[in-house]
Each structure stands twice: as C-alpha cells, then as structure tokens.
Amino acid sequence: MTLPPQALSHPGLSYPIGATVQPDGVNFSVYARRAAGIELLLFDHVDDSAPSRIIALDPRINRTYDYWHVTLPDIVPGQLYAYRAQGPWRPDIGLRFDSNKVLLDPYGRGVAMPQRYDRDAAVNPGDNAGVAMKSVVFDPREYDWEDDRPLRRPFAETIIYEMHVRGFTAHPSSGIAPERRGTYAGLVEKIPYLQELGITAVELMPIFQFDPFDAPRDRMNYWGYSPMSFFAPHLQYSVSRDPLGAVDEFRAMVKALHRAGIEVILDVVYNHTAEGSHIGPTFCFRGLANDDYYILEQNQALYKNYSGTGNTLNGNNTIVRRMILDSLRYWVREMHVDGFRFDLASILSRDEHGTPMVTPPVLWDIESDPVLAGTKLIAEAWDAGGLYQVGNFYGDHWKEWNGRFRDDVRAFVKSDPGMTEAVASRFFASPDIYGHKGREPEQSINFITCHDGFTLNDLNSYNHKHNLANGEQNRDGENHNLSWNCGWEGLSDDPAVERLRQRQIKNLLTINLLALGVPMLSMGDEVRRTQHGNNNAYCQDNEISWFDWSALERHAGILRFVRQLNQMRLHLDTVMEGPHPLTLWQLLHSTRVQWHGVKLNQPDTSYDSHSLALTVWGHWAVFHLILNAYWEPLTFEVPNLSPHKPCDWRRIIDTSLDSPSDFSRYSDAPALSDPLYRAEARSVVLLACQRKDENS
Q1: pTM above 0.85, yes or no
Q2: Choosing from 211, 380, 526, 654, which is the catalytic residue?
C-alpha cells in the first residue's frame, strides 16, 4: 500500500540521519542529493517479496536540501525498512539510480538478511525486494551496560591479539555448543583462555555487516572486508540471527571482555564497500548518491580502485566524512569499543581525484574529535594503489602497523644477509622510521604475522603459497613472503625439521614480544595454527581458517612459551622477583643499552653478519639478549659486571631448548659458570642478572 506524505503525522527532520526513535515516532532521514524521488519501504518480514507499506516522499514537504525525511508515529524498534530512489541512470556522469533496487539505509543500526538473499539480484535487472537485505529500526538506549566503560589502557601496557570472531570458536574442537560456535557469545566463553594467554586487547577482524557472498562462486567471504553497513554488527555472528539480538549480543561480549580487563579494537573498513566495480551490485550507496560516495575515474562510469576490490570510498567528501565520524562515534558511545584499526588507511588521505593530500580533512576530523580522543587509533598506512606511508602517516594520535618490522625480522631470522642493523632498529621501535616525529615508542605496532599472509607456523613450513583452494589458480595472495620451510615444503614427520621449525617460531615470538613498541599476535600462532600454506584465506570459512583447539595439547610447549613471554612483558617482576613491579617496556625505555657482537662492545653490522647482542642495564637487574640467526653455533662473550656490584648471570630464555627448559623464572634458572655463552644455531637467548645491591 502506497501512502502519500499528507497521510503522515509529521514531515520529519533532516537530522539525525538514519532511523531515530523519538517520542512522537521514528524519524527517517537519508541523503540523496541527485535523486528525483525517494520511497520509504516498510516490511513485515525479511523474506517478503513486497513491502507492506510504501511511503512516497514529497520533495516539497519531505526534503530539506539534499536530505529526504519523514516521521512515522506508529513505528517501533524492530521495524524492517529500506529505500528506493528514482533518478537518471547515467553512469557516464556518475549517476546510477535504479528504482527497482531495494536500498539499505547507510545509517541503519541493524541489518536483516533473508534466507533467499541473492547478491546477483542486486546486479541483474528487475525488482529484488524479496531477496535483498533490509535495515532495522533500533533504539540504542535500551540496554543495561551496568556501569561498563572503555578501559583506556595505555599503549605501553598493551598486547594485541588479532582474531576472527567466527573462526575463534567455529571448530568442533572448541567445545562450544553447536548453536553458539562462531558467535559473539561463543567468544565470551573463551575469555578465560585469552586471560591466561596474557593479551590485553582483542583486535576483531571486520564485524560490520558484510556480504558473505562477495567471494568466488561456491565460496564464502570469510574475512569480512566487504562492508554493507558501517553501523550494524554482522548478523551471522549472532546466536539469535535477529538484528536487534545481534546488537545486544555484541554489547554483551564487549562488556564481558571489559570485565576481564581486555579491550576491544575493531578492524574497520572505511575505504570501500561490497558494491564492487562498475559491474557490481547496487545495495545502498551506489543507488542513493554514487557520485558522492565513491572516487570515480575521469570516465565516471568507472571507479578508482585503490582498495583492490573494485571501488574506493570518497573519504574526504563532506558526506562520507560525516558518515565515517558518525560511525566511529556510534561504536564508541553506544557499543563501548576501545579503538579502531583502519584497513588500508592511506586511502583516507586521497582527495576526490585520488591524489594524496597533505592535510586530509577526514583524518584531521578523526584526529581532533573529542569523542575519539581517548580511543586507540591504528593505521594500516598503505593502500593497494601503491601509497605507502609507514612512518609518515598523518597526525599525532595514530599508531601504525609497522610492515617494516614484519619484513626485517622475518628476513633476519631466516638468515638473509645484511639485516643485523635493521633488526637492531626494529627492536627499539624503529627510530629510523619514526624518530623524526619525536613520538613515543608505541608509534610502532610490531607484528610478524596477521590475517593477511602465512600463519607463523606456515611461515616456517612453506617456501611458496598454496592457494589453489581459493579457486583462482594460485594467482591470488602475496608472492614475496620472506618465508622458509626449514628444509621441507609442508607437513613433515622428520624430527630435525620439526625441531628447527619449533625453534624458528620461538625466535620470532621472542623478538616480537620483547621489542619496544606495541606487540600484536595473530590468532592461533601461539599453538602453531596452520592454513596448509594458504596465504590468502579470505574465502575459506572452514577448517583451513578456524582455530583448532586440539592444538593446545599438541603444541602445549609453544603455548606455555607465549604465556610466559606475555607475563614477562607486562610484569617483569613475575620473572625477576624484583623489589618493585616493573614492565619490560619500562625497563627498555628508561635504561642504558650496550650493543655487542660475539665480542663485547663490538657489534657487527656488516652484510655477512647474522648475529647481534645487547645489554640492558636496569637499576636492580641487567639483561643480556643474544640473537643468533647464523646456521652454526656461536660463542658470545657475556659482560663481566663490576665485582663491587656482584651478581650471577642466569639463563631465562634459550629457544634451542625444549619446553619447559626454554623459559625459566629467575629463581629456577640455571646459572652461568663462565663469562661465555654458546648460542646454538638459529636461536635467541636471554640472560638476566639480579644485582644484590638494589640501590645501585
């Protein structure tokens, strides 16, 4: 039934944007600058092939400049709705109106997905009402947060765990009830594991509603870098599969993580949408204001593609800037998240023509916004168009994924030549990259692996990617992995190969978790999760990508090692039994450092060098770190401390040893009998000396 605006009680307001519950009903407002007409569609059920009511908005009554709006008095939370937009189909001038297509609300707080959802129907001619996603009216005030607040943990006390909500508990071995596997609620059941692991923040791969079918045919979009809404949590991660239930389930997860002392960082995708290239579907933005939301080629029928996915959001357009800021504020205010990691963040520095800007307005907006002032902001400071801004990303609030740390540490540990000087810089927060900014060491987010690329196990088990399961003839995924298979490609039953892999994994973990900066671990690396050589598992929603919980028993030694490293980083006194609580960050940041090679005070940074050592002098303890990436054992001189301040060197870490000897508390650690230490081939060693004179 189509109703004219005159039948409505109120013409509505242009602000707030979206569907807003008010005392006199629900106000709907949507931006559509070039539209000739807008219809608000109300649905009784998500699978209905036609709306139960159609509200045809009158531009004389229901339009204020570029906003179309109306207030309906009889609408309550849970109401399904969408839009249709009339206007010219003129791709040559950037306009793609299609009055047959059902459009999501760009500000919709919830998204409902029909059982017969069909991505292709949003591409092909004709009405797609029965198979299209719909928006849902939502009132964010109807939730008891029980005094929950974002934790505001300093970056200096942060260890990040990048994880996938579904993949974390989807595997049958998780022990989660089948209906709760792969959900926000399922993650809550595993919070004790995260606490025991010692991480302080989870970085959740995309949880904005995305198109699960934006993938090669017969496969699913698993990673979620295909957003359809910047305000709605992904429905398929909810136990109830009810849009309002998904919102509350997400908030319950945040609340539970906060109670456990764990922050929530969202991996957000404000660089592109699921609408793809010029031959992609019309879900929302394209059908309302295509020329505002996207960066277009000079031939406006085509899209700039700095994201590698077919389109690029026009982040510095006024409308898009406002949407991004409103989205970020919403997730902080109403969903209580603690921070954001921005996928391909360098795209947000590009103007409407794709040219990088010196002072990008959207980044300045985010940088200076008071609501976001206390949140964690992390940039992936590059894009698929070749823009690489690591060390030069805009602003003072932002931290950066340090891709140079990943690459240089990988290269050093696998014994590439010429890497000793680089790894020394990476260990101390990359002053060659960030020193000119005069910033804190936490500018650098240090990682060895992430979702994109090999897992830590596969980094040491494969020389080449094995992505045939993705259906793209192994063309997809990175070719330059800086990986080494330790002598055999893939799974091996050779004990020597397996021991070497175990050692290399511990070497990489030790450097990552002891280095100055903010460490990030990738889900499952602590138990050698494998993807069987697939380094681009974006479409593998199966056991290739899921966390196999049986690995906790198989790789208990690595798990113990990581837990001990995390404890040491956050609470050095748990290892050293010092007089005062101290973090590793405090020690490294505030004490004297001496550099060595195999001989004291003679660091060798030549092209052929594969080893390095350093001594960190604290007030009550001294640490000596040995990095031997050479393929033979090396004997290192150990500092002979002054006899006036006697102390005995003890071995805390030696990655060449089996668990539990590879990591010891100071009180249990074996003492050195002479001032030399034989570091086995490809190993990392940490010695500690607790001074008897604590006032020294």
Answers
A1: yes
A2: 380
